[in-house]
Amino acid sequence: MSEDAKPARPAKVPFAPSSRDWLEPTVKFAAGRWSYSAKPKSLRTLEFPNPRDWSPDQPDWKLPDNWKEIILQGLRERMDRFRSLRLFMDCCVRCGACADKCHYFIGTGDPKNMPVLRAELLRSVYRGEMTLAGRLLGRWAGGRRLTPEVLKEWFYYFYQCTECRRCSVFCPFGIDQAEITMLGRELLNLLGLNINWVMEPAAKCFTTGNHLGITPHGLKDNLEFFVDSIEEITGVRVNPSINRKGADVLFVAPSGDLLAEPGIFTLMGYLLVLHQSGLNYTWSSYASEGGNFGMFASHELMKGLNAKIYAEARRLGVKWILGGECGHMWRVAHQYMETMNGPADFLQEPISPITGTHFQNARTTRMVHIAEFTADLIQQGKLKLAPERNDRYRVTFHDSCNPARSMGLLEEPRYILRSTCRHFHEMPAETIREKTFCCGCGAGLGGEECMDLRMRGGIPRAEAVRSVREKYGVNLLSSICAIDRAVLPTLMDHWVPGVGVAGLHELVGNALVLDGEKERTINLRGEPLHEGET
Amino acid sequence: MPDIKPPAHGQDSPVSFPAWRGEGAKALFPLVAVAALVLIAWAGAGLPRLEPLFGIILPYGALLAFLFGMSWRVLSWTRSPVPFNITTTCGQQYSLPWIRSSRIENPHTRWGAAGRVVLEMLLFRSLLRNVRHEWVEGDREGAAPKLVFKSSPGLWLGALVFHYSLLLVLLHHARFFLDPVSGWVTGLEKLDAFFQLGSAAFYVSGVTLILALLYLLVRRWWLPWLRYLSLPADYFPLYLLLGVALTGGMMHYSTRANVPAAKDFCLGLARLRPAGLSGLGPLFYVHLTLACLLLAYVPFSKLAHMVSLPLSPTRNLPGAGRMTRHVNPWNAPVKTHPYAEYENEYRDKMRAAGIPLEKEIP
Lengths: 534, 362
Ligand code: HEM
Ligand code: SF4
Ligand code: SF4
Fold this sequence. Notes:
- The complex is a heterodimer.
- Chain A is mainly alpha-helical.
- Chain A folds into 2 domains: 49-193, Fumarate Reductase Iron-sulfur Protein, Chain B, domain 2 (Orthogonal Bundle), CATH 1.10.1060; 203-511, no CATH class.
- In chain A, 44% of the residues lie in helices and 5% in strands.
- Chain A has a 4-stranded parallel β-sheet. Chain A has a 3-stranded parallel β-sheet with strand order 5-6-7.
- The longest helix of chain A has 19 residues, at 216-234.
- Helices cover 53% and strands 6% of the residues of chain B.
- Chain B contains 13 helices and 4 strands.
- In chain B, the strands form 2 sheets. A two-stranded antiparallel sheet of chain B has the order 1-2. Chain B has a two-stranded antiparallel ribbon with strand order 3-4.
- Chain B is elongated.
- Classes of the chains: A mainly alpha, B mainly alpha.
- The interface between A and B is large, with 146 and 121 residues.
- The complex binds protoporphyrin IX containing FE and iron/sulfur cluster (2 copies).
- Residues 92-98, 115-116, 171-173, 175 of chain A line the site of one iron/sulfur cluster.
C-alpha cells in the first residue's frame, strides 16, 4: 500500500493536563468519550436501584436524596469486604510507573486517564471523607469532599477504563486499577449510574441465557445454519446438540460468536474441531453465554449470571466444562467462578477422552479452555492439519487482556497458530503477552457513541499491528476474545485498513482435515483458498 | 466514524485566568513545613528546659507511634478478607506438561507465589519492566509519526539505590545502640567505607542515599505528568529524608567530637535509661527530630507501603485460579434465574425446536 493511500494516522498525542489542579473535578463530558445511560427496563429486570430515564450529559442525574450517604456507606462496606480496595486506597506511592501503561492515556493524553489518577479520584474522597488528616487538611492532604461534580467525574473516568489490568503489571505493589474500577462502578450502580452497553446485555443474559437475547429456538436455527455452511464448504455434516443429557462435556461459548462476523467463523471452527475429535459434548440454551457483563457492574451480578453454567452442568450431568474463546469470560472462569458458585464437586476432574490428558490446571474449577483442549489434540497428533490452507493470511496474534493477565494463556494459542498457519509474526514485545494492549473497547465500552474513545484507546494496538504490517505484510489479526472480534475490525478499518480479524479456531477450522471431507476450495469465509497466496 | 483530530480533548472548560494547578504550592508547602521543623528543633537545642521533650518524649513517642501505628495499619488491612483470587499473571500459566510455565511470574504453588513476593521486594522486578511510550517521527519525509516503547529503568534504579542505601545507613546506626559493637556492624562499615575522608570513614551509602533522594525529587518535578499528579504528601517525606541525611552527613564529617555523647544518648534510649542530650548541639537536635517525625509519620502515610507488598492480592496468590479452591468468607446468595423458570418461559418454543425438556407440560 502506498504511503498516501493510508488513512488519517494518529498524530502525536501530547500530554494535555487541565489548567486546574486535578483535585478540581472534571465536569465537561467530551463528545465521543462517554456511553449512554442504561434503560430503566434493564435495571428493573435485574432489580438494580434507581431505574429512571436520565442522561450523563444532562445536569440533573435524578439521584436519591441520600446519595452521598449511600456512596460512603457502600465504600465502607466494600473496604471491609475487599482487602484489595483497602490496601490500594493506602499504599500507592504515586511513583507514576503505571501512568503511560494505559491505552486511554496514550490515546487521549488526558491526565485523569493515568491509572494512578483514575484511582486517586476515589482515593481523594476516601481521604477527604474518611481519614482524619484529609478531613482536617483538605486538599493539602490530597483529600476532597464527595460532591455531585466528583460523582460525575467518577462516572466519566470509571467508564473510560476497560479493566484490562495492564497498569497492574507495572506497579511495584501490583495495584490494580481494574479492581478499583470494578468497585467504583459498583458504587455508581448503587445510585443507578450505569451504561446501557453493560446493563442491557446483562439483563438479556439474565432472562434468555445470553447477552444477545438469543432464544432457545434461535440458538437451534443459528447452529443449523452453521452446520449447513460447513457442509457446503467441507462436505461433512457435523451434528451439534442442545441441552442433551448424557453428554460428557458442556460447551459454553460467548454468544457473540453466534451472530456476527467474524465470530461466526470462529464458531464454525469450534464445531469442526469438536466434531473431528469425537468429543461427546452438548451446547446449552440456558447457559448459552460464557461472557459475563455482570462483571462490569457488580460482583453480585457477575455471580448471578455465572451461576447458570454450573447449574446447567449439574442438571445435564456432564463430567466437565469446555469454554470457547472469550476474554472476560475467562477472567470469570479462572478467577471467580469456582469461588462464587462452587464447589464443583458434582463434576469430575477434566480428562480429555481423546488423548487421556488430565488437565491438572483445571482440576478444581473443572472448566477447560478450548485452546488448551485443541493444543493438546494437536500435540498428541490427533488432528491432521493442512496449514497451507491459511496461506492467504499473514497472521499476527493479539493477546486479549484477560487470558493474558488474569490467566497466562500465552503459549497454547501460539502453538496452535504455528501449527495451523505458515506465516505467523509477533508484534513488538512491549505490546504482547502480559504487556498486551487492550482493544480499547472492553468492559462495556463498545458502544457506537463512545467511538472517539474507542479509536483513541485502540491506538497502541493499531500502531503495533501497523508495524508488523509494514515489516511482514501482516493482513490478519487473530485473537481469542469475542469483544475483539466485534470491535477490532472497526479499529483496523480506521487505523490500519487491509487487516482482517479472526478468532483462533477459524484458522484451526480452515487447516483441519476432516475424515471424509471433500476437497476444499474455499475457507470458512467462503474466500478461495489460494487466491492472493503469498 | 468520528473524525479523530489530534489533541482535541478539552477535558474541562478552558479556564484562562488564573490557571491554578497548584503544582508549585504542592511542592513548596511541605518544604516550608520541613524548614519550620528544622527551626523548631534548632531553637529547642538552646532551651535546656525542653531537653526531656527532645530527648525522651520525642524518641519514645515516635517509636510507639510507629509500632502501634504499623500494627493498626496491618490489622486494618488484614481484617478485610481476600474474597477472590485476583492474581495479575505476568507469564505463561501452568497447564499442559509440555508447555513451560513461568514459575515466578505466574506461580501455581504457594512457594512460587512467596518467591514472587520476595523477589519483588528485593529486586523491584515490576519497576524493572518499565517502558515509556514515545511518538517518533516517521522514517520518511511526510510519513506519520510512530508510537514506540523505550525501556525506562531510571525509576527502578533510583528506587533500588535509594532503598538499599537507606537500609545500609540504618544498619550503620546500630553502632550507636550496641555496646560492645558487634562484628557485623564493623564488617558492614568496612564494606561500605572505601576510603577515609579526613578523619571520618567515607560511606558510599550516605552519598548514594542523598543522590537517589535528589533523583526522586527532581524526577517528580521534572516530568510534567508526574508533577501534575503529585501531592504535598509525595514531597514531604523526600524533604524530611533529605533533612535527616544532610544533617547526619554534616555531623559525620565535621563534628566528630560528639560521637561519645551521641552514643551515650542512644545507649540510654536502648536501655530505657535516657541519658539526656547534654553535649549534643543543634545539628543533632535537628537530625533526631526529623528522624523521629519520619518514623512516626510512616504508618499514617504512603510510607506504609513498606509492608503492603506481601499483602497485595494481585501478587501474593498463586495464579492458577482453576487449580485450588479459593473461599470467599462472605459469599452471599444472589438473585438468579433458575432453569425451571427459564423452561417455563420457553417451553413451547423449546418443544417446537426439538430441544429436550425437563417437564413435558403441554
Ligand atoms: C516492598 C518493597 C518496596 C517497594 C516496591 C518500594 C517502592 C518504592 C518506590 C517506587 C518509591 C519511590 C517513590 C517516588 O517516586 O517518590 C519508594 C519510596 C520510599 N520508600 Fe519504598 N518500597 C519498598 C519497601 C520499602 C521499605 C521496606 C521501606 C522502609 C525502610 C521503604 C521506605 C521508603 C521511603 C522512606 C521512600 C521515600 C519517600 C518517598 O518517595 O515517598 N520502602 N518506595
Ligand atoms: S505504579 Fe503503583 S504505586 Fe506507582 S503510581 Fe501507579 S499505582 Fe501508584
Ligand atoms: S485497567 Fe487498563 S484501562 Fe483501566 S486504568 Fe489500568 S491500563 Fe487503563
